[in-house]
Amino acid sequence: MSVSPFLFETKGLTKAFGGLIAVNSVSIGFREREAHAIIGPNGAGKSTFVNLLTGHLPASGGHVMFRGADITRQPAHKVARLGIGRSYQKTNVFPSFTCFENCRLAAQSLLSTSMRFLRPAASYREVSARASEALERAGLAARAGRIAGSMSYGEQRQLEIAMVLATAPQVLVLDEPLAGMGKEESEGMVGLLRDLADTYTLILIEHDMDAVFAIAKVLSVMVNGTLLESGPLEQIRASKAVQDAYLGDGAEAY
Amino acid sequence: MNTVLPRRLTIALLLLLAGLALFPAWGPLAFAAKYTFLLQKLTGIMILAILALSLDLLVGVAGLVSLGHAAFFGLGGYMLALLSPQYEAASLWVALPATMGAVALAALVVGFLAIRTAGIYFIMVTLAFGQMGYYFFNDSKLAGGSDGAYIYVKPTVEAFGTTLVNLESKQAFFFVVLGCLVAVYLLLRVVLASPFGRVLAAIGVNEGRVRGLGFDPAVYKLVAFALAGALAGLAGFLAATQYGFVSPAMLGWHQSGHVLVMVILGGMGTLFGPILGAFILELAHFGLEAVTEHWLLPMGMLVIAIVLALPKGVAGLLLQWCGKKGDGE
Question: A17 in helix, strand or coil?
Answer without folding.
Answer: strand
